[in-house]
Amino acid sequence: MSRLDIKNPSRAQTVLENLYRDVERHIEASPPGLCPVDMAHAFLQMCHAQSCGKCVPCRIGLGQLSKLIEQVLDGKATMATLDIIEKTARTIVNTADCAIGRDAARLVVDGLEGFRDDYEEHIKHHRCLAGLEMPVPCVALCPAGVDIPGYMALVGEGRYADAVRLIRKDNPMPVACAYICEHPCEARCRRAMIDDPINIRGLKRYAVDNAGEVPQPACADATGKKVAIIGGGPSGLSCAYYLALMGHQVTIYEEKNKLGGMLRYGIPAYRFPREKLDAEIASILSLGIEAHTGITVGKDITFSKLQQDYDCLYIAIGAHQDKKTGIPGEDSKNVMSAVEMLRAIGDEQMPDFTGKKVVVIGGGNVAMDVTRSAVRLGADKVTCVYRRRIADMTALPDEISGALAEGAEIMDLAAPVRIESDENGVAKALWVQPQIIGAVDKAGRPRPNKAALDEVRLEADIVVVAIGQGIEIQGFTQAGIPIKRGTFVADSAAAVGDMDDVFAGGDCVTGPATAIRAIAAGKVAAANIDEHLGFHHEIRVDVEVPAPKLNNRPPHGRINTTEREACERKHDFEDIECGLTCEGACTEASRCLRCDHFGYGNFKGGRIEKW
Amino acid sequence: MVTLTIDHKTVTVPEGTTILEAARSIHLEIPTLCYLKDLNEIGACRICIVEVEGHERLVPSCNNVVAEGMVVYTNSPRVREARRVNLRLLLSQHDTKCTQCTRSGNCKLQDLCNDYNLLGDHYIKDLRPVPEHFDTPVIRLDNRCVKCMRCIQVCDKVQGMNIWDLIGTGSRTNVGVAGHRTLADSDCTFCGQCITHCPVGALQEHDDTGKVFDALADPKKITVVQVAPAVRAAWAEHYHLDPKFATAGRMVTGLKQMGFDYVFDTNFTADLTIMEEGSEFIERFTHRDRYTWPMFTSCCPGWVRFLKGQYPRYTGNLSTAKSPQQMFGAVAKSYFAQQLGVEPQDIFVVSIMPCTSKKSEAALPTMNDVCGDPDVDVVLTTREMVRMFRGEQVNPAVLPETPFDSPLGSGTGAAVIFGATGGVMDAALRSAYWLVTGSNPDADAFTAVRGMDGWKEATFAIPGAGEVRVAVVSGLGNTRKLMRALDAGEVSYDFVEVMACPGGCAGGGGQPIHDGKELAEYRGDVLWDLDKNAAIRYSHENPDVQALYRDYLKTPLSHKAHHLLHTDHFAWKMPNQK
Fold first, then answer.
1. Which of A545, A573, B58, B560 falls between 20 and 30 A from B262, CA-CA?
2. Contacts of A547 in chain B (CB under 8 A)
3. One CATH from 1.10.540.10, 3.20.20.70, 3.40.50.2300, 3.10.20.740 for B2-89
């Protein structure tokens, strides 16, 4: 008997550790539409297995909760059962000795609040409200509902132009999304249950890079109806595209010098090369869409004039107004907003930051765009300042690591206090107050609090504020467009209040969001405008999707796209990403599990062929 | 073409063929349960799995296509074990009281379990206490359901009604009525196609044989049975008898043997329907501006329920003529009762129908015109009649032929084709032509409305009346297409025949079930043959129908005919109608 033993995990422990990882992945890839009561029940049983068994509430209470919820699921419960569940769960939250019991019961309490309807439906009608409307996870999670398994298969067969045509059925900007989409489609990819999600965006990029020029389909017969689109960003362009296909006469009014919206005036060229953007816009306009740039609605032309001249309007002006920090010194010279800086870059008026020290305030993707653009504009040093921790930043992890690789600094847990300027009012430094991370707020993010440390001075020739954007509502409020919390109010059909000829969508309704959400809003608006104008044009495409191959696929690593070396790419605005190789694209496409065919897909709703 | 090896045999099939169909092409049968070609190729039951060389896991053969050089084994120890396990899993949630199930002996699951010699129970029985409802002509018995999804598919893809759906997720996933309804408060047409496509006994008709046995045993009741045209083409399939041998005459003998006092033929009232509906059409056609167009046939209750549930604004377009079944009930309890010198209440009318929806038609509050009681007391499906035959040990193979009783037992060739798609239209046109011109057309002048196409169109000239544009549809999916086109003004017709079941009553939801086979065309051909060989092929020439008008009704559309033979389609509502 030795006095002490070196800890070596047993074989069972090692296998169990792997199991935990597998379960995590399994949960991550949960398909949409599951019964929340059933899931809560399953989680509760897992949590109960974690109990050490010392304390009454956890050892017995979790088990009883589980039995009670099972009664609900089996249709044997009454409304009184719900009261007992609630009382028991609260008692466990209040009396369990450790997090195992307390947080397991909290899941039940949260569920009783969050999906009480589901509980009641099970009790009163012995039925479940859940159901699988779109069983293919990637399609369900793509705001525009693009036929992802379809184009994965087409890429696998080398039919790149067909892939582009299939994407265009639901999203007229496949190139933009190939380069910059945040790919919500990958979040619940079923492949993650085996290894990792499919590199969907990477495959789309391979398709658009190799498709050559894909001609647009013919438009339907002219309807004689006229629609004006206010705003030539992704949402406006998408709406215009589908309306033109449906045979309506479309005119875009754009405030800036060029079309593209945030794709041009927000996203830097190193992420989305301008010639690609210009080509995609030209392709959309080739349907016969008229575009007037440099026209501000409300200034150069009134809203009511547009209402008179057109049968329908779609407002998609985006969110291009900068938000202020409100700290002293913000009006100093050389303090600018991200919107201003990216707009100038978009119009190819590059600011010269050579030798300058640049400080960027913010932690989102726009802050990263500004930071990385500043590096490329020749700055000597670029520091991104953020109130919370790097882990709390809303920017995509790849953007943060990319910025760091290109030599930018990130100073986290630093709250801007004031901007110091010289006698000429030119910014000299940003003072920040160090923070300590604190309690978690209602949204689930830990709040930063003032740390017991002194303020820090950050030398700064240029300060860029990148803390979010708002909507320029002037010219629209007078026209009676309803506004709530700074954005236009439109319903899920993109219709605006009781104005039956006005629709709105994109960032100006949602607040700053993603390109694909804006594109989806444009698609939705086009369908409902068509209907409003008294038509029912169907959008479809005659691309036949290849039959799936056998789905017996052993685990295989995900093929990622690579980037140009940081030391090289930081000097120019050329594309930083290297697309997949042909070998990589073929292999990656073959990893797709074809949920459109296997599983629930070939039973119901694997493919939406028209809309 | 793709060449592969299945069980050491080389086979070449077109690209895109499934492994299952490739195997069948060389007579290698891979067992299936949920599979229905073109309708349900979803790989849900995992019985059709096979081993494919180079693939670690087993592969369902119904929804995977062949590849060049593929090497397939349809039977191997691994495959056999997997099939047996999956069958046992199904059995753990299946109520295996086969002796009390109408599908015993005609059950896909029973066959497979027998084939795979499953002895003993390996799993804990896991039957669910799901509430069952017996208030509709179509019944679902939850613990028999194997979740093959065929009912959902046939209702969605063929009938376009979307009544059945998958309810819930996870371990409690079940088949139920879509939209959180019960069948009784849904807009189900009770066509019964879900029943005839169910591989097990989870779906069946409401069994009413007990009521008929009771009536047969009641000395105070005069039992009268009518047999629909399509029944004679299918009734003896259970006995594996050729329809040429298994004639209506042998069926009449069987029914008499069971104790029915009078065995009559719905063909008689099919001829009567033609007289009323044909006259109604001519009346409408010659006063076009008084009516909305087209006129729809009204003899299929599934279709009437469809129209009232889906397109209620077209209710006025239905012919007001009752269906042959309901005309029979009304005539039996009036004209025939009078002939016998008895009260209508003394007569018990039973129908044998190829249909489940007919049960709902007989139960309508409007179908009691003679005395306030239902004109038809009980409706049995063809399957129920066969069950009664079996219970009474009637052996059709040794029965002699007996003619139908008189006077409601005669029918023409024009009547017997009511059981096949296009038949009502064909028969109606034959008599409409005569009604207008006074002379008969060629009995085969209207062949354009025959055949298995789901949506047929034709235009016929009737001298003196003009061009009649007709359409014939069968299957409710096709019906919805036609209604949409009508509604959008893309098509226009004068007269439209609709049958809810694909192929008409021959493929009705009350007909015998043969898993994986669609027999509507075969049975329809039997009926068309009967017409071809009939002595009389025009409804207006049926001597007993002529006598009925002469002695009782006077003329078609007379006051008495209206009271007994026509109905108000507005006088009742579908559950989904406000």
1. B560
2. 16, 65
3. 3.10.20.740
**Contacts B52 to A, Cβ<8 Å:** 550
Cβ burial, residue A527 (10 Å; 0-12/13-18/19+): buried
Count Cβ–Cβ pairs < 8 Å, chain A vs chain B. Answer: 70
| CATH number assigned to the domain covering B210-577 | 3.40.50.1780
Q: What's the complex ipTM?
A: 0.77
Q: Which amino acid is at B9?
A: K
**pTM of the full structure:** 0.87
Q: For chain A, what percent of residues have pLDDT higher than 70?
A: 99
Please tell me which of the candidates A38, A125, A597 has its beta carbon nearest to residue B180.
A125
pLDDT tens for A239-265 read: 999 999 999 999 999 999 999 999 999
Question: Judging by DSSP bridges, how do beta strands A414-421 and B295-296 pair with one another?
Answer: unpaired
Preferred mutation among A39, A119, A127, A545 to probe B, highest tally of B CBs within 10 A? A127
Q: Report the relative pairing of strands A495-496 and A290-293 from DSSP bridges.
A: unpaired
Q: What is the 3-state secondary structure (H, E, C) of B390-408?
A: HHCCCCHHHCCCCCCCCCC
State the Cα–Cα distance between residues A98 and A87, nearest whole angstrom: 19
Pairing of strands A357-361, A462-465: parallel
Partner A contacted by B71 (CB < 8 A): no
Contact list in A for residue B63 (CB cut-off 8 A) is 597-598, 602
Nearest-CA distance from A130 to chain B in Å?
6
Domain ranges of chain B: 2-89, 93-205, 210-577
Compare CB distances from B172 to A73, A121, A554 and report the shortest one's residue: A73
Query: Rounded distance, CA A529 to CA B239, Å?
Result: 61
Residues B204-214 pLDDT 10s = 999 999 999 99
Domain B93-205: CATH class, spelled out: alpha beta
The minimum CA-CA distance between A225 and chain B, rounded to whole Å, is 21
Q: Name the A residues in 532-551 with CB < 8 Å from any B CB.
A: 547-550
**B233: nearest Cα among B452, B444, B418, B425:** B418
